[in-house]
């Protein structure tokens, strides 16, 4: 009997590459998301540090005006970052969906391969059993 060959092997290899590409694209967008979130947190930390610096030193009205302007600028930057985060979140959800689809297709082909291998194994074992029986009968008849 011939050895096991999965007729959809090329398709499975393509699906595995598609999963790898989808994972890479997902990781890239996830890094964008993480960077955006870190920038937002850094901005909040900068505002808190500026507030503490103004409160801990001698009171000067110009410092409060500068702090107010800094807060306003920081708020605008946070709003811009939040808008970017919405876009990144949409792309992240899209990439995650594409990855799940690629993974599902790959899993389907793997299951098909396993079922084909199981059928081949049963057929191979049946043929080996038949050959063993024929060999035994030929030796028995040769006596």
Mind explaining what this structure looks like?
This protein has helices at residues 9-56, 61-142. By secondary structure, it is mainly alpha-helical. The chain has one domain. α1 runs antiparallel to α2 (61-142). The longest helix is centred in the C-terminal third of the chain and has 82 residues, at 61-142. The protein is rod-shaped, with a radius of gyration of 33 Å. The mean pLDDT is 92.
Which overall shape is indicated by the principal axes computed on the Cα atoms?
rod-shaped
Largest sheet report: none
End-to-end distance, in Å? 29 Å
Report the sheet-strand fraction: under 5%
Please provide the count of β strands.
0
Summing up helix and strand content along with how strands pair, one would put the structural category as mainly alpha
Q: What is the CA-based Rg, rounded?
A: 33 Å
* Overall residue-averaged pLDDT value: 92
H/E element sequence = HH
**Number of helices, counting only DSSP H or I runs of 4 residues or more:** 2
Unreliable runs: none
Overall number of structural domains: 1
Q: Estimate the helix proportion, in percent.
A: over 70%
Defining traits:
rod-shaped; 2 helices; 143 residues; single chain; 91% helix; mainly alpha
Q: What is the strand and helix layout of this fold?
A:
Blueprint: H1 9-56, H2 61-142
Helix pairs in contact: 1-2
């Amino acid at each position: 009997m011939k050895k096991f060959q999965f007729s959809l092997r090329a398709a499975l290899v393509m699906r595995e590459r598609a999963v790898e590409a989808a994972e890479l694209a997902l990781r890239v967008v996830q890094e964008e998301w993480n960077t955006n979130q870190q920038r937002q947190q850094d901005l909040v930390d900068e505002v808190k540090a500026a507030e503490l610096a103004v409160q801990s030193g001698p009171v000067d009205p110009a410092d409060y005006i500068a702090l107010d302007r800094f807060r306003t600028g920081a708020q605008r930057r946070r709003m811009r970052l939040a808008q970017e985060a919405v876009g990144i979140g949409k792309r992240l959800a899209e990439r995650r969906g594409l990855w799940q689809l690629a993974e599902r297709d790959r899993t389907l082909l793997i299951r098909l391969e396993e079922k084909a291998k199981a059928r081949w194994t049963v057929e191979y074992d049946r043929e080996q059993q038949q050959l063993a029986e024929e060999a035994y009968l030929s030796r028995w008849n040769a006596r």
